[in-house]
Design brief:
Elements: E1 17-21, E2 28-29, E3 34-35, H1 39-53, E4 57-61, H2 77-87, E5 91-93, H3 100-108, E6 114-116, H4 128-134, H5 138-141, H6 145-150, E7 156-159, H7 170-173, E8 181-183, H8 185-199, E9 205-209, H9 214-226, E10 232-235, H10 237-246, H11 253-261, H12 265-278, E11 282-283, E12 287-292, E13 295-300, E14 312-313, H13 315-327, E15 330-334, H14 347-358, E16 362-366, H15 368-376, E17 385-387, H16 391-397, H17 403-414
Parallel strand pairs: 1-4, 1-7, 4-6, 5-6, 7-8, 9-10, 9-15, 10-11, 15-16, 16-17
Antiparallel strand pairs: 2-3, 12-13, 12-14
Helix pairs in contact: 1-2, 9-12, 9-16, 10-12, 13-14
Bound molecules: adenosine-5'-diphosphate and magnesium ion.
Length: about 425
């Protein structure tokens, strides 16, 4: 038991049928039918391997594709292929989620065999719109089709999908009501790592917040500053631009237009209030960069030419952040410092990311584009911890109790093996 949740250590697995919910949601190349990235699948390997090695019949549940817009659902077949390669063992796949064919296949599994079911979001009750409209309790989720059809075939439910832990859906929160449940190894590692950052970080604890997901950044900032978790928040990207606009610093009309066009106007006022309260801990860029004629230009904040767009922190700011990160004992990072996808505006992100790799402090990093930057600079092996979760991580750091954590805790209370 860790944090009130049972771990795999507490169960005997040989001959048991285990339903294991993983998060293998990856960008898909729909034309080729392949995955553009496999980092989340790789992260799932240790738990799946352990379950199989210990003789369980492993049934994997996973989703692939968008939650609300219904634009990019995709089958989980490519995932089974990638997983087979990574495990060096065949992962069976079936184009059924919980119908008779899937159930028959589950009954036929032998000890150690692995079966990946098709995309759970093909079942309507797994969709985010359904979740938001109906807001089923976990008890009600246990009465959904998916849980009713699959739970009777299984001995244990394992959730390893930390990246989906902010979702309140039957495949994530329903099974714990009717089956013994545990968190998988990845979930355990991610949850314990981020809990440590929130509850007892080694100090100084520095947050680096950039990127473009403004609502997330602000929610998180209010919590970590309010609770005293963050000793310093270094800002970059659009987050910094909004603060600077709130303080009336000229950052180029292009930047202001971009903020307005993205409907982030309301955050300018919020930023002003937040800065009033926490000016001693919120660090803003002293210089910024823009691109003119394909070349990088820099100027101190307040002195940018009219009309330009600030797309990166300047080199003086980058040096200052570099020093702060190297002096930190804990660093949490979400969101790049600029438009790192383009060469003239990558300097800030590249400098900060190198500092993250080199600091003796423990650097925790999360977010899709932040991970892409890490891969781009070849630093994947050198970060303290890369979290597979974006939304889940941010909600956790914003002080929310994650639905899946709640369901697993409750499961530990009500269910004995
Ligand atoms: P993550 O995926 O790591 O959580 P976000 O999605 O919040 O990060 O932000 C990443 C995006 O923000 C990148 O595509 C990057 O180009 C963009 N970005 C960073 N800085 C700026 C900026 N100053 N202006 C506009 N876009 C920016
Ligand atoms: Mg992103």
């Amino acid at each position: 038991m860790r944090f009130g949740i049972r771990t795999l250590d507490e169960f005997s697995l040989r001959g048991k049928t285990v339903l294991c919910r993983v998060d293998m949601n990856q960008p898909v190349d729909r034309e080729k039918g392949t995955l553009k990235s496999t980092n989340r699948i790789r992260a799932c390997v240790p738990t799946i391997r352990e379950l199989s090695d210990k003789g369980a019949k492993v049934v994997l549940l996973a989703h692939q594709g968008s939650d609300i817009e219904y634009k990019n659902f995709y089958c989980t077949k490519p995932h089974a292929q990638v997983l087979s390669q990574l495990l060096g063992q065949q992962v069976q796949w079936i184009d059924d989620v919980c119908g008779p064919a899937a159930r028959q296949k589950i009954r036929e599994l032998k000890d150690g065999e692995i079966l990946l079911l098709d995309n759970v979001r093909y079942v309507s009750e797994e969709q985010t719109l359904f979740e938001m409209k109906l807001r089923l309790t976990h008890q009600q989720q246990a009465n959904t089709l998916l849980v009713q059809k699959l739970a009777p075939l299984a001995d244990l439910y394992v959730c390893d999908a930390f990246a989906a832990a902010h979702r309140d859906q039957p495949s994530l929160c329903g099974f714990q009501q009717v089956l013994p449940s545990a968190m998988g190894r990845l979930f355990e590692k991610e949850y314990c790592t981020v809990s440590q950052v929130m509850e007892a970080p080694d100090r100084p604890c520095v947050f680096v917040l950039g990127g473009a997901k403004i609502s997330d950044a602000f929610l998180m900032m209010e919590t970590v500053l309010g609770k005293g978790v963050a000793d310093q928040v270094l800002t970059g990207g659009l987050v910094a631009n909004i603060f600077l606009t709130a303080l009336g610093k000229a950052i180029g009309q292009g930047s202001v237009d971009f903020i307005m066009k993205s409907n982030y106007g309301e955050y300018i006022e919020k930023a002003g209030r937040l800065y009033e309260r926490y000016a001693d801990r919120i660090v803003l860029p002293e210089d910024l960069a823009w691109v003119a004629g394909g070349a990088r230009k820099e100027a101190p904040v307040g002195q940018l030419p009219e009309g330009v767009s600030a797309v990166d922190i300047g080199s003086r700011t980058a040096a200052r952040y570099d020093a702060a990160i190297r002096a930190a004992k804990t660093v949490f990072v979400n969101g790049p410092m600029g438009v790192f996808e383009q060469a003239p505006s990558e300097y800030g992100t590249k400098t900060v990311w190198n500092a993250l790799a080199q600091t003796e402090g423990f650097a925790v990093l999360g977010g899709g584009d932040s991970i892409t930057a890490t891969e781009k600079y070849g630093l994947t092996e050198r970060m303290g911890y890369i979290c597979t979760g974006g939304g889940a991580l941010i909600r956790f750091l914003s002080g929310e109790e994650l639905p899946v954590v709640k369901a697993l805790r409750h499961g530990a209370e009500i269910m004995k093996e």
